[in-house]
From TrEMBL:
<dbReference type="InterPro" id="IPR011051">
    <property type="entry name" value="RmlC_Cupin_sf"/>
</dbReference>
<feature type="domain" description="Cupin type-1">
    <location>
        <begin position="107"/>
        <end position="239"/>
    </location>
</feature>
<dbReference type="InterPro" id="IPR053297">
    <property type="entry name" value="Dynactin-associated"/>
</dbReference>
<dbReference type="InterPro" id="IPR014710">
    <property type="entry name" value="RmlC-like_jellyroll"/>
</dbReference>
<protein>
    <submittedName>
        <fullName>GL25 protein</fullName>
    </submittedName>
</protein>
<dbReference type="GO" id="GO:0005794">
    <property type="term" value="C:Golgi apparatus"/>
</dbReference>
<dbReference type="GO" id="GO:0005886">
    <property type="term" value="C:plasma membrane"/>
</dbReference>
<dbReference type="InterPro" id="IPR006045">
    <property type="entry name" value="Cupin_1"/>
</dbReference>
<dbReference type="Pfam" id="PF00190">
    <property type="entry name" value="Cupin_1"/>
</dbReference>
């Protein structure tokens, strides 16, 4: 079972091997592939009524006798593969992240992860993936991303989501199998409301280092006297908000 993300908001265009083959004139396919028997052998292929990209043939064991392959060299494999489950965990109050992402200068990545990281950064319109686990009643605090749309899929648990825009706030519940989407620059938060952890797979539409601003950071980064004017509260009142140790 796979969860797949594609970097397009248009209708997805896909060309399968069998479709390409059957849409190629017989003589052209024969000249390109050069099989024994030539064009007569090409004519022995019959297009199936069902899409074989989805439906495997019922007599698969009779058709395939050897499905082994040789593992490619590590420097090639790790351009396209990342062991997310075995990667470092990045905890935050209430949960933990694991990332398959680009990091500037490979900061915090091992050698194989650096290969994957650089591969992401070399390609346009790529994706950064992560798993987000929020403990029961935990909170992924309000934040937004400067350089990426975000899409998520709920693996387990249940939660509440808030999307905060100028003049509009949307709140809704999420559960297993639901998909959520946050456009770039949209402030949002996610809260777990079940007894079990809320687990999501997240995709970000960037191959660069993800740029995120959280509420506690921009609130604490604003001068007390400015906050006092905005909220009509004594300046000293804003000392009540705890600041993270540097």
């Amino acid at each position: 079972l796979f969860v797949l993300f594609f970097t397009t908001h248009e209708e997805l265009q896909t060309l399968d091997v069998d479709d390409a083959f059957f849409n190629t004139p017989e003589d052209i396919a024969a000249r390109a592939l050069k099989p024994q028997g030539g064009v007569n052998f090409i004519r022995t292929f019959k297009k199936q009524e069902e899409d074989q990209a989805v439906n495997l043939p019922p007599n698969l064991d009779e058709l395939v006798k050897n499905a082994t392959y040789v593992q490619s060299p590590d420097n090639l494999v790790w351009q396209y593969f990342y062991n997310l489950k075995g990667s470092a965990e990045y905890p935050f109050p209430g949960g933990v992240f694991q990332w398959a992402r680009y990091r500037i200068n490979g900061t915090g990545l091992n050698e194989t992860e650096k290969i994957f990281s650089e591969s992401l950064n070399k390609h346009e319109n790529t994706l950064t993936l992560a798993t987000l686990r929020i403990s029961s009643n935990g909170l992924g605090q309000p934040h937004f991303h400067f350089n990426a749309n975000e899409m998520g899929y709920v693996i387990s648990g249940c939660g509440q989501v808030g999307v905060i825009l100028s003049g509009v706030t949307s709140n809704f519940n999420i559960g297993i199998g639901d998909v959520i989407f946050f456009p770039v620059g949209t402030q949002h938060y996610i809260k777990s409301v079940c007894d079990e952890d809320l687990l999501l797979i997240l995709a970000y539409s960037t191959g660069n280092q993800l740029e995120t601003l959280r509420m506690k950071d921009y609130f604490h980064g604003t001068a007390d006297h400015i906050l006092a004017q905005l909220f009509f509260k004594e300046q000293a009142e804003f000392q009540k908000f705890p600041r993270a140790a540097k």
